[in-house]
Amino acid sequence: MKTRDEYAEKLKAQIDNWNTEVTKWEAKARTAHAEMKPEIDRQLEILRQHRESAMYQMKLLQAAAGDAWVDLAKGADEAWAAFREAVEKASTHFRK
Considering the entire predicted model, what is its pTM? Predict the structure, then answer.
C-alpha cells in the first residue's frame, strides 16, 4: 500500500480533475434550456455533496496519526466510489 501522503495526493488530484469537470458542467447549466435546468441543477447538487464527503474523508486521512490512516482509507475509498459514480451518472446528462 502507498504511504498516507501518496494516497492523499492521489485523492486530491482526482478531486481537482472532477472539480474541473464540475466547473464546465456548471457553465453549461447556466445556458441550459429551461426544461433541462432542474435536472442539471439536481445532478450538480448531488456532485457537490459527494465532493464534500470525499474531501472530508481526505482531511480525516491526512490528519490520522500513525497507521490509523489505513483504516480511514477504507472510508475514503467508499466516498470516492460514490463520488465517481455520481460523476459518471452526471456526465451522461451533461454530454448530451
Answer: 0.69
